[in-house]
Write a structure and sequence with these properties.
Elements lengths: L39 H28 L14 H12 L12 E12 L2 E10 L2 E15 L14 E12 L1
Antiparallel strand pairs: 1-2, 2-3, 3-4
Length: about 170
C-alpha cells in the first residue's frame, strides 16, 4: 500500500512587523481537505461481510440444532444446498456427534467469516460436543432465488429474482 504525504505551507504564526500605513498582502491559506465519501465498492464489501456473518451464525446454529434433534431437517430448507442436507441426514442416521449423556448437546462456540468477494464467503469455527472441542468449515455463496408471486402467474413470464446466501459446502472435523 502506497502512503501519500501532502505537504502544505505553514500558516503565519509570527507578527510580520508591519509599519503603520503599510498593508500586508493577504495570506492565502489552503482550504481544509474534506473527507471523501466511502467508495461504493468498500461500502458493498462492508455490507456483504455483515450479511455473510449473520447468515453463517444462523446456518451453523440451525445445523447443530438439527444434529441435536431440536429441529427437523426440513427446516434447513433453502438455507443450505441439497448436498449438505444429505450429509446432515447421514450424520443423524448414524448418530454421529451424539454424546452418551442425553443432557449434553452440541454447543457452537465461535464463527469466523472471511469474505472472498461480495458473493462468496469462507466460514469456519468451533463447537463443543461431549466435552470435546471440534471444528467446522464451509463456504457460503449469494445465489439467485426466485420469489413466489402473490398474483396469478403467466406462463413464459419469469418471476422476481432475489439474491440470498446459501451454505454450499460444510465439513465437520
Amino acid at each position: 500500500m502506497e502512503t501519500r504525504i501532502r505537504i502544505q505551507p505553514a500558516p503565519p504564526y509570527e507578527h510580520t512587523g508591519a509599519m503603520v500605513g503599510v498593508v500586508d498582502a493577504p495570506v492565502r491559506r489552503p482550504k481544509p481537505a474534506r473527507p471523501k465519501p466511502a467508495a461504493p465498492a468498500r461500502s458493498a464489501m462492508v455490507t456483504a461481510t455483515r450479511e455473510a456473518r449473520q447468515f453463517a451464525i444462523l446456518s451453523a446454529r440451525m445445523i447443530f440444532e438439527v444434529i441435536d434433534r431440536r429441529r427437523g431437517i426440513a427446516q434447513l430448507g433453502g438455507m443450505v444446498s441439497p448436498a449438505i442436507v444429505e450429509q446432515v441426514s447421514v450424520l443423524l442416521r448414524h448418530n454421529v456427534l451424539r454424546s452418551s449423556d442425553p443432557t449434553v448437546g452440541t454447543a457452537m462456540q465461535r464463527v469466523h467469516v472471511q469474505l472472498r468477494d461480495t458473493s462468496t464467503a469462507e466460514v469456519f469455527g468451533s463447537f463443543a460436543v461431549g466435552g470435546r472441542v471440534r471444528a467446522f468449515a464451509g463456504r457460503a455463496q449469494r445465489l439467485p432465488c426466485r420469489l413466489r408471486s402473490n398474483g396469478p402467474t403467466q406462463p413464459g413470464r419469469l418471476g422476481k429474482v432475489e439474491y440470498r446466501w446459501q451454505l454450499v459446502e460444510f465439513t465437520l472435523a
